[in-house]
Design a protein that fits this description.
Elements (H helix, E strand, L loop, with lengths): L10 H18 L5 H22 L6 H8 L7 H23 L10 H12 L8 E3 L5 E3 L23 H14 L7 H15 L6 H15 L10 H7 L1 H10 L16 H25 L2 H14 L8 H14 L1 E2 L3 H6 L3 H14 L2 E2 L7 E3 L6 H4 L13
Antiparallel strand pairs: 1-2, 3-5, 4-5
Helix pairs in contact: 1-11, 2-4, 2-9, 3-4, 4-5, 4-8, 5-8, 6-7, 7-8, 7-11, 9-10, 9-11, 10-11, 12-13
Length: 393
């Protein structure tokens, strides 16, 4: 699978790396309130699994994911499975973020990559632990265990299963233990994304694991913008280009001017440029979307046009919601100050707002916190979730 890095002299890679570093730093500082940041991070995790599902050919709408998180699973078997896949993705990402708090964790080690797969697949029903070879032969997928069968991925035939440990060890040594300049680290994350997909270590679930692993690498190297953007949205929007660039980078070296490894250095460079361009696009998109002044305006528009079904207190609930978008959380007593209403009316406003999901509370008398229910997302965060076409495998 050599080379493991593209030509470092490619000016596009250094320019894009610098632009991404600046953009992620700006995004990280866009939201100062911890409560708002936490709720946004939760929303981004939902978005991440939504787009990861789309990449794999499964459509699970935000409301379906929201219902799954409330243990309201569909009676339709296919939709139920999609909800379970979404739940497993969110649970795994949350657990992964917690593990990354340990600064000694080796994120390039085969053990960590296998842990991602194990955590994801152990949350799926037994029926989803079955996959098939290109010839239709059925085999079991064991959570966290590398495959013991030969598989084909389009035109690419990954390494023989007997050689997987050697390839994973080489992956670990090069990306995790070889000194890589800070200015080349983002390019290395892009290259590692392809090379891990090329190894294809598991019987199934490789795409999800590779994207979660890239997310872990971005977190570890401080390029996640404070958890306020996701790679999967960009890859899903460019799904066909994503697959094309992956397949191109699978190709062997073209000639003596195409690097010195077994695989094409030029194609790896093209994939890395695509990967970095996708990151930059998504970070810039989220920076614009999270502008606080614009968010206040979008909340007002939602209540003007979409919340007309509220029987009463529409304007008051809008004021409380808008204030929570600024402050994240506050005591219930503050509702009287915001709305100018008495205690009885303020209690009604809180009850109705909580029932509709516009804000939330940890207890019956606890503080109020901002919420982003699925029904508000098209107004609060337009284009965050796009109903992209799904191409089944």
């Amino acid at each position: 699978m050599e080379p493991l890095l593209p030509d470092p002299k490619d000016p596009r890679l250094s320019e894009l790396s610098q632009a991404v570093a600046v953009a992620t730093g700006r995004l990280d500082g866009a939201v100062h309130c911890p409560a708002v940041r936490a709720e946004l991070a939760s929303l981004i995790r939902t978005m991440n699994c939504y787009y990861s599902n789309l990449i794999e050919g499964h459509r699970t709408l935000p409301r379906d994911i929201e219902q799954a998180n409330q243990d309201k699973l569909s009676t339709d078997p296919e939709q139920r499975n999609n909800q379970l896949l979404a739940q497993a993705h969110i649970d795994t990402e949350e657990a992964m973020v917690l593990r990354l708090e340990d600064e000694t964790l080796d994120v390039y080690a085969p053990e960590f990559i296998c842990w991602i797969h194990e955590h994801f697949y152990s949350r799926l029903p037994d029926a989803l632990h079955v996959s098939h070879t290109e010839s239709g032969e059925e085999y079991r997928v064991t959570p966290g265990k590398m495959r013991e069968v030969m598989v084909d991925v389009g035109r690419h035939t990954p390494p023989d299963f007997s050689a997987l440990q050697g390839f994973m060890d080489r992956f670990h040594v090069f990306y995790g233990q070889t000194p890589i300049r800070a200015t080349d680290r983002l390019t290395a994350i892009a290259a590692a994304h392809h090379r891990l997909a090329w190894i294809h270590p598991f019987g199934d679930g490789n795409g999800r694991v590779v994207r979660l692993h890239s997310h872990a690498l971005l977190l570890r190297h401080g390029l996640d913008g404070g958890g306020l953007w996701t790679l999967s949205r960009g890859l899903a929007r460019m799904r066909e280009t994503y697959f094309t660039r992956l397949q191109e980078a699978d190709r062997p070296r073209e000639n003596d001017y195409d690097g010195r490894g077994n695989l094409s250095a030029r194609a790896l460079s093209r994939f890395c440029v695509f990967f970095l361009e996708t990151i930059l696009d998504q970070v810039q998109f989220m920076s614009g979307l999270l502008d606080l002044t614009a968010l206040r305006t979008r909340i007002e528009r939602y209540f003007q046009f979409e919340a007309l079904h509220l029987p009463r207190h529409q304007e008051a609930i809008m004021k409380v919601t808008r204030a929570l978008a600024d402050e994240g959380e506050f005591p219930r007593e503050r509702v009287k100050q915001i709305t100018g209403k008495g205690a009885t009316t303020a209690a009604e406003i809180i009850k109705l707002g909580l029932a509709e999901g516009y804000f939330q509370s940890p207890s019956q008398k606890g503080i109020l916190r901002i919420a982003f229910p699925s029904k508000t997302l098209p107004f609060y965060f337009p284009s965050l979730f796009m109903d992209l076409p799904v191409v089944t495998k």
